[in-house]
Amino acid sequence: MYLNPSxxxxxxxxxxxxxxxxxxxxxxxxxxAVLERAIEDLAPxxxxxxxxxxxxxxxxxxEVGSFIWVCRELSSREFKFNPKDIxxxxxxxxxxxxx
Length: 99
Description:
Number of domains: 1
Number of helices: 5
Number of strands: 2
Shape: elongated
Strand order of the largest sheet: 1-2
Structural class: mainly alpha
Mean pLDDT: 77
Strand content: 5-15%
Order of helices and strands: EEHHHHH
Oligomer: single chain
Largest sheet: 2 strands, antiparallel
């Protein structure tokens, strides 16, 4: 980034832009970690977190950060995360209060 003396405006050079591939990988890593942590929070010994984690999995919301959004975001990349498959796999942990 430099100040263009003729215009007095800060200008961005290509070197100033983030590496899109690195940013892409970091986003995938972040959302994978969010999903992994939510699954870990389903453990019976995590009773202080389990209710909010169960609510997150059960929710049908689609806004940024919701379970369905995370699955869609990861599936739009190189992975396939089907919310129904994940809910089925962890059914007894997610729906423990109803079983």
